[in-house]
Amino acid sequence: MNRPVTTLFMLMSVDGKISTGASDTLDVDKDFPKIEGVKEGLHQYYEIEQTTDLWSLNSERVQAKIGINTADMPNKTPVSFVIIDNKHLKEHGIRYFCALSYNLC
Fold first, then answer.
1. Number of domains making up the chain
2. Is the pTM of this model over 0.70?
3. What is the extent of the structural domain holding 34?
């Protein structure tokens, strides 16, 4: 039988909380590098993240949390973004994603 081989990666939940907690004080990018047994393999996660699909699903809440509303304008990337939510990004954050994204939905 000729079927395509596919792989599904879940790199992060939509709200940005993979499992260190449900509050903004608990953050995967800050917490995982400190955890023995996790920090040693974290580079693999970031390597895989760079080779996945050219579409990225994000929430405004997470983007606001990581500072997009005040970040320096980025260079254009080949990645298209789908942003869900409608209350956390300011005008600067929206302009940031317009500058960054190939397509923005």
1. 1
2. no
3. 28-100
